[in-house]
């Protein structure tokens, strides 16, 4: 007889206490191997696939897609092993533990066992009995007059599609996807939203004059997952860090020329962001107090020995800050390759929590949005952030004559507890000098 083992949501690190189920990757009755990913969840840091430590047959799943579970709560149960040493099959697996049973007894890293959450069982009608009525659907829903509400997991192409449906109160189970095997695409959801908003409303019979209507309530978007984490961190930064910002315009013509020459020489291409990361690493070596954090409990500034540069990346799930480890030990080409790898992982939702934490300094290239300047909020608990605006042709006095040059505005926001304006100004001026004369970097190596 196989033994049913319970697998709970594991500790995903960095103080994370909950995760939202994005997509189930297995069904009840499926045979899974040890360490096979069984569910995709979204934490405050990233979207990750969770592997199951047991091999066997899935006997139960706990939690629906879109539901948030606490760490340590049951995810699924798996029937593992058998007296003859054979892998169990769906036909030989006993029922999952009944409600009221104690914890499974398994212990995973980071937390102990706890009592199982209330089991949700699907009641199957007896042969010939009428099926249960479908869940209520808005009259304007873009489906048939009598919509069919599908049970079980919903195949959706991305978490963004699921979020759009939640924001507009759309039940994905009444939609039929136009993608392969009924996969619900973003276009399916957008059409459904449009149909709901444009559907005619049946006029009611005349009634007595009603009291003045209250103002319509706006759309409520839950602050959770990555967006919630960003909101909490930025709010904490504003509450705790007495920041200040200084600006400078710099002529980036020579920097762009140097990049063009590097890329023309062959080999992997070097990005502008990688050049700024290289400049920041050199500037932090000259002004190490800006590569620090403040220990408020002990009243100390902690100057950090390693330089881990984070860079802001906009994704469909919101703003994330991947971190380039040991930036001070990497060449410009290595920085460019790592930034490219992390950017691609951010866009595909494949970043791990470890790749989003541990930064000591942040580089924010808001110039990609076509703006010149900004006053960035420091990425708590760091001490400084460099903002880079767009590089655009402007009139500039060059060697005593007016000329059209490629100009960029740099903004530097710093924690005034770790340094004064002289140190911050020195840092920013060094960065600007490297932008205007890249050869200055040769003196900083």
Automatic annotation (TrEMBL):
GO CC terms, sorted: cytoplasm
Domain Lipoyl-binding: residue ranges: 4-79
Cofactor annotation: (R)-lipoate
All copies of domain Peripheral subunit-binding (PSBD), residue ranges: 156-193
Enzyme Commission number(s) from the entry: 2.3.1.-
Gene3D superfamilies (UniProt xref): 2.40.50.100, Chloramphenicol acetyltransferase-like domain, E3-binding domain
Key word Cytoplasm present: no
Top EC class of this enzyme: transferase
InterPro entries linked: 2-oxoA_DH_lipoyl-BS, 2-oxoacid_DH_actylTfrase, 2-oxoacid_DH_E2_comp, Biotin_lipoyl, CAT-like_dom_sf, E3-bd_dom_sf, PSBD, Single_hybrid_motif
Ranges annotated as biased composition (Low complexity): 87-98
Region (Disordered): 83-105
Keyword Acyltransferase belongs to the record: yes
Coiled coil start-end: none
GO molecular function: acetyltransferase activity; lipoic acid binding
This protein's UniProt keywords: Acyltransferase, Lipoyl, Pyruvate, Transferase
Family indicated by similarity: Belongs to the 2-oxoacid dehydrogenase family.
Protein name: Dihydrolipoamide acetyltransferase component of pyruvate dehydrogenase complex
Origin species: Actinacidiphila glaucinigra
